[in-house]
Amino acid sequence: MLILGIDTSCDDTGAAVVRDGHEVLSNVIASQYKAHDRFGGVVPVIAAREHTAKISFILESALEEAGISFTDLDAVAVSHHQGLLLALVVGVSAAKSIALACDIPLIGIHHLEGHIYSNLMGRSKVLKFPFLCLTVAGGHTLLLKVVSHGTYELLGHTRDDAAGEVFDKVARHLGLGHPGGAAIEKLAEKGDPEAYNFPRPLINRTDGEFSFSGLKTAVVAAIDRNPNLNKADLCASFQQAVVDLLVSKTIRMAGEHQLQQITLAGGVALNSPLRTALKHAADDHGYQIFTPCDDLCMDNGAMVAGAAYFLYKERGPNPIGIDTRANAPLGSKGIRYRHDSKYR
Ligand code: KG4
Ligand code: ZN
After folding, report:
1. Distance from the alpha carbon of residue 327 to the mean position of ligand 1, in angstroms
2. pTM for the full model?
3. Measuring from each residue's beta carbon to the nearest atom of ligand 1, which residues come in under 6 Å?
4. Domain ranges across the chain
5. Do 147 and 130 touch, CB atoms closer than 8 A?
6. What is 128-291's CATH number?
7. What is the Å distance from ligand 1's center to 238 Cα?
8. How far apart are CA 58 and CA 50, in angstroms?
9. CA 195, CA 203: separation in Å to the nearest integer?
10. What is the CATH number of domain 2-116+296-342?
11. C-alpha atoms less than 13 angstroms from C-alpha of 305 in its C-beta half-sphere
């Protein structure tokens, strides 16, 4: 089954063609970083304008790279829930037009399901339900038990900022541009992770709750106190605090809910120290760790097409009039979770 997947939920215009939920034939992404950079964050109306300007070209490129035409498609899938409303609408309108013009099913995907399913692509025989998923991105930090296709239980989420958002805010304060996760990781390579003893909020609580705002405030205060500080040491110490928080809660929830397989998803999943620390901790407990390939971590259309393949079998197609929602509950149990304010 050939599915065209579209994601315009935030500041990446993504389109991809995926065969049978695992074979990625193309995965084209146009990032808008430059358009938002001078504003220090994502500006919704600019995001929508950029998606509108690029969507046709990105769709055509995805088909061309895959070596197919619109008439070869079996379905079109789109992120219609969770993201910037004005941005989502661009992808949803394109998907509806394609579904109507080609007379193929339209499959609406919750953006977070795309991230979750990025782990199942090519691994559906190895990963067994139920498994744990730590989704860490610019807008979300949440721990989910993936019970079955389309059914999730919330084991924990952030009370305030998302982990990626804090990476971005610290990077902005250091003048490293937006988004800043990768820049912080690079600077941290040369720094001492023990140079600063930053707080690890809620780390000793036995539940899966996260909090990052106190850490962010402490890091920003350290920068403001000393303009000549060693940026590499600061980045390494800050990154270590985030990694400690994410790893400790994930391992604790895996133990409490007896989940042997742990998956990592979202843009922050690209962070190597996080991957390494999680792997070490999991090895100590006899758990397995899965991370998506790099191209599937940040927002992209392939994860949407991948999720659609599995979820179409469960839920069937959506009506052509599907809604578009900035903040929508997740999965068959309608889970509600915290997400970053930039999505409102
Ligand atoms: O999944 P994504 O593209 O967008 C959302 O759904 O929010 O994730 C983007 C986030 C940004 O906050 C970015 O700074 C972060 O992922 N990120 C990283 C790294 N690469 C991207 N954070 C830490 N380390 C990285 N190497
Ligand atoms: Zn995302």
Report:
1. 19
2. 0.96
3. 10, 137-139, 164, 167-168, 179-182, 185, 266-268, 270-271, 298-299
4. 2-116+296-342, 128-291
5. yes
6. 3.30.420.40
7. 15
8. 12
9. 20
10. 3.30.420.40
11. 32
